[in-house]
């Protein structure tokens, strides 16, 4: 007998094969493609034994379609999105960290509407009991008892807006697995751990490769907890299909790029005990799969609404606010970044601001500016926070940002730690309201040069007010100098709404830049 374990993870509401940058684009990902692969794999595998299918988290947030359902439609009801996911024959679902981005009431509605059983062992209420769904489930198919444990990265509390996680405790996934795996083992023939989290160590060397302790715990789980037969992972957006400590594991990228597939060859002995005598793990890529007709039928009307909303003109630009090279746009200020900084400062009444170019798909605002431009450049639903900080805090934050760069063969390049194990472009901030230079020839922690505010050097004890997105304001991205205690005001609504509102008041904007920062490699300085 064979047991097949199929999984998606980090689909982020990308139903159609598009990143929405260009209208009508068709690319090699999306839930509609993944659904076709899942149905095909389910049908093929059932001839050899039972199949379980897992949705491994981060499904509620990420795409313009998901945002439209959560923030634009008057009902603010996740049902339209969940009805699309319900077309796939999932057995279980796990919660991802981004499930909390729109608040607990919205998440509870999604769980209510989901056909799949939600499992979450380590997000607890104030009494220490699982708050969302049940910790595990025993699934019986073809006489085989399969125990499935659901875990979520504990690091949600480190970056999520406090009001979105009020009353919750986030326990270590390792601690929860250590508790529940032996319990499940007594009831099930096979134990499958499904974890919306990834690996904190290099899988070939065992060396640490994750600087955020506790965010990813998969390596420790497999190293130290016996009794696990298969591990499904996610969160890092990596493409993995391998064995770790001789336990098969998968991680299928993001946006439905692939479906994880683990196959266990099982044998039952005379005493009735089941064991895996062989195993295999692979990723089944979706790029050539046709779109699933049930998914398309469920999403068609909603997609039409979203397309109309994305293409409404909101403002006009005098000049050019586009760029071709995202890396160059992080080294010298572009009119797009300066505009975002101006919006943030005007909204929160600050005269220092920080923002990021969140991914390499960004190309700035076309003319006229549409919601499509906004949603594909500013891809997260974060709001804004105003913080009281010191000059020392500001310089320390800039030094964290400067880690994004390193030098190779005398050229400035991206620090590999921001690429592997996960792309983290969103953790490099650029600053407005101050002038500065980052000299990458200098040692880490000593790269900020010529930092001035209103023409004067910034002093360590100087009081300052800065506007940040809410992820950064609570220290997200390893910015420990920022935390909730320094927040003095919070904006209303997500940044895409804030930009749209600003354009209502300023329908014509100038593409300008004051070139207030530079990134150089100057060993002689």
Please tell me about this protein's structure:
The protein is of the alpha/beta class. It is 26% helix and 28% strand. The chain contains 14 helices and 30 strands. β3, α4 (104-113) and β4 (117-119) form a beta-alpha-beta unit. The longest helix is centred in the middle third of the chain and has 18 residues, at 293-310. The chain is globular and about 80 Å long.
Oligomer: single chain
Helix content: 25-40%
Portion in strands: 25-35%
Low-confidence stretches: none
Whole-number radius of gyration? Answer: 24 Å
Mean pLDDT: 95
Number of strands: 30
The total count of helices amounts to 14
The major beta sheet can be summarized as: 6 strands, mixed
- Strand order in space, largest sheet: 4-3-2-1-13-14
- Class by SSE composition: alpha/beta
What is the rounded distance between the termini? 68 Å
Described by the principal axes of the CA atoms, the overall outline is globular
Task: Detail the topology: elements first, then pairings.
Elements lengths: L1 E7 L22 H15 L5 E5 L8 H9 L6 H7 L6 E3 L9 H10 L3 E3 L3 E2 L11 E6 L2 E9 L3 H4 L9 E2 L2 H13 L4 E7 L21 H7 L5 E3 L6 E6 L2 E6 L5 E11 L5 E12 L7 H18 L2 E6 L2 E2 L3 H6 L3 H14 L4 E4 L7 E2 L3 E2 H7 L6 E7 H12 L2 E4 L2 E4 L14 E4 L2 E5 L8 E6 L2 E2 L5 E7 H4 L13 E4 L4 H11 L2 E3 L6 E4 L5
Parallel strand pairs: 1-2, 2-3, 3-4, 7-9, 9-10, 10-12, 15-29, 24-30
Antiparallel strand pairs: 1-13, 5-8, 6-7, 11-12, 13-14, 15-19, 16-18, 17-23, 20-27, 20-28, 21-22, 24-25, 25-26
Helix pairs in contact: 3-8
């Amino acid at each position: 007998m064979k047991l097949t374990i199929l999984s998606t993870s980090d689909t982020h509401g990308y139903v159609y094969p598009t990143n929405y940058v260009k209208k009508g684009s068709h690319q090699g990902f999306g839930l509609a493609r993944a659904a076709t692969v899942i149905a095909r794999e389910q049908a093929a595998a059932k001839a050899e034994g039972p199949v379980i299918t897992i949705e491994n988290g981060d499904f509620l947030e990420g795409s313009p379609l998901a945002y439209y359902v959560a923030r634009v439609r008057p009902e603010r009801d996740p049902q339209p999105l969940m009805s699309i996911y319900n077309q796939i024959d999932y057995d279980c679902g796990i919660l991802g960290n981004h499930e909390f981005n729109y608040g607990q009431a919205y998440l509870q509605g999604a769980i209510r509407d989901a056909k799949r059983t939600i499992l979450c062992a380590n997000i607890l209420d104030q009494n220490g009991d699982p708050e969302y769904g049940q910790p595990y489930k025993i699934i019986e198919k073809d006489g085989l008892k399969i125990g499935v444990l659901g875990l979520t990265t504990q690091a949600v509390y480190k970056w999520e807006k406090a009001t979105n996680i009020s009353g919750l405790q986030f326990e270590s996934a390792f601690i929860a697995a250590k508790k529940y795996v032996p319990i499940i083992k007594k009831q099930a023939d096979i134990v499958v751990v499904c974890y919306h989290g990834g690996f904190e160590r290099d899988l070939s060397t065992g060396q640490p490769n994750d600087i955020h302790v506790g965010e990813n715990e998969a390596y420790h789980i497999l190293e130290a907890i016996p009794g696990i037969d298969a591990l499904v992972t996610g969160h890092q957006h990596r493409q993995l299909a391998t064995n770790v400590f001789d336990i098969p594991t998968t991680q299928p990228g993001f946006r439905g790029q692939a479906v994880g597939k683990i196959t266990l060859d099982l044998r039952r002995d005379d005493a009735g005990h089941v064991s895996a005598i062989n195993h295999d793990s692979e990723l089944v890529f979706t790029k050539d799969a046709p779109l699933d007709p049930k998914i398309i039928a469920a999403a068609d009307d909603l997609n039409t609404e979203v397309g109309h909303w994305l293409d409404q003109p909101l403002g006009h630009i005098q000049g050019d606010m586009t760029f071709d090279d995202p890396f160059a746009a992080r080294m010298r200020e572009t009119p797009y970044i300066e505009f975002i900084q101006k919006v943030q400062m005007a909204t929160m009444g600050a005269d220092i601001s920080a923002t990021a170019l969140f991914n390499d798909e960004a190309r700035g605002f076309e003319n006229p500016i549409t919601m499509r431009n906004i949603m594909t450049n500013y891809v997260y639903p974060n709001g804004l926070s105003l913080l009281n900080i010191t000059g020392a805090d500001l310089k320390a934050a800039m030094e964290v940002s400067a880690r994004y760069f390193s030098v190779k063969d005398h050229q400035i390049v991206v620090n590999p730690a921001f690429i592997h194990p996960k792309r983290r472009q969103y953790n490099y901030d650029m600053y407005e309201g101050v002038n500065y230079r980052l000299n990458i020839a200098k040692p880490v922690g000593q790269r900020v040069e010529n930092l001035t505010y209103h023409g004067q050097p910034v002093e360590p004890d100087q009081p300052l007010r800065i506007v940040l997105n809410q992820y950064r304001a609570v220290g997200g991205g390893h910015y420990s100098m920022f935390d909730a205690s320094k927040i003095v005001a919070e904006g209303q609504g997500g940044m895409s709404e804030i930009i749209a509102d600003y354009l209502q008041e300023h329908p014509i904007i100038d593409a300008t830049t004051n070139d207030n920062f530079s990134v150089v490699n100057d060993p002689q300085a």
